Amino acid sequence: MELRRGVLVLAVLSQLRAPQYGYSLRQALEERGMPIEEGTLYPLLRRLEGQGILDSEWRIEEGPPRRYYTLSRKGEELCKEFTRSWRSLIATMDHLLD
Amino acid sequence: MDTQTLIDSYTNEVARRLPRGLRNEVGLELRALLADELKAASQAAGRAPDPDMTMDVLTRMGRPEEVAARYGEPRGFNVIEPEHGPSFVKVALFAVVVHWALTLVLSPELTFTEWWLSWGLGAFWWVGVLVVWYGLAAWIQRRTPVDPHSFYRPWTHYIFWVPVLRDWQPSVPDLDRFVYQNAKSLIPLSAAMTLLFASLAFLAPSGVDGSWAAYDADFRLWLLPPILALMVARLALFTFAVIRESARPRTEPIRFGLWVALVGMLLWALVGWQIFAHDLTNLVFKAWLAVFLLVNCVQIWAWIRRTTTRVRVPSNLASSRRE
Fold it and tell me: Are the CB atoms for B42 and B65 separated by under 8 Å?
């Protein structure tokens, strides 16, 4: 449980290289095997935006207005850093578990 | 309640627990996200959205206080959890005010200074007791989260009244919707009431002593005409809004203004005027009027609360939403 919570932010950042709104992001994550409860994901997006990791804007495309999120410059750097850390961690853990 | 009212009610409950600057922005986004979730649930079920389906979506989202807390910054150590804050303030305020009221009434021999230095300041021990109580409740809740659907809960949760009892339910009935849905019976009823109030000023049953139902002369001359005018204006405006549905949003603030003015006039009549000439009639009518005004004041308070915490669509997004 804690392990999954730890990678949640990286999973979200990985899918926000292109703009997504809350529900479409949840769908994208679910399709890739990372279902996240709506009550967890949507507040997380706002918090990440508040920390300057995401940018957001309201858009009107096919239906009601929706808030689209994408990585900010700071978010892109953070995503690269997290990815490096994650790969290094996997290598270490593989080494430990083998 | 229909699906949109449920979503709006839930969104408003989340929004009112957020910092003021975040309310509208988060509320607006949450409403759009819930609409997306409901649409997906409807497509998966192969039927149109209904209130039960909406409640399932809202239950999955979580209770409003939990969702509002998640929208805040990640929490550190709190003696009183943010979601328990409003309840703590209400209970603490209630305890202190009751303590003050009782000790003021029961200690008439004390001067105000003596009272303030003893019972007055002493009332704040309640706040200390409640801080400890809520602190322990939060600690228990953090250590042993309980399934709200489970019948069996640890005894500590009962003793400390840890608020994890049930899923969210809409708490504020949509009065306006009720009023418009029952317009066919409410309009004749209001018209009959207005006519009755007016007729008492002019009619006296022939051959029967109607003096017990006569208005006081001063009241009839000065206060009755504006009260009747307000009643007629409200009724006319309501009837107009029922006939022309598109005019409702514009008439709502005027109807509210007339309502507040009418309640204010009736309140003035209650406390400052003899309404009926006959003392017993006056007493009985004023008792009824007091209850009527109490109910109306609560409704006005609920209306203001609902309106001030309502999530509003910014004008640049509003036109597209209506399409």
Answer: no
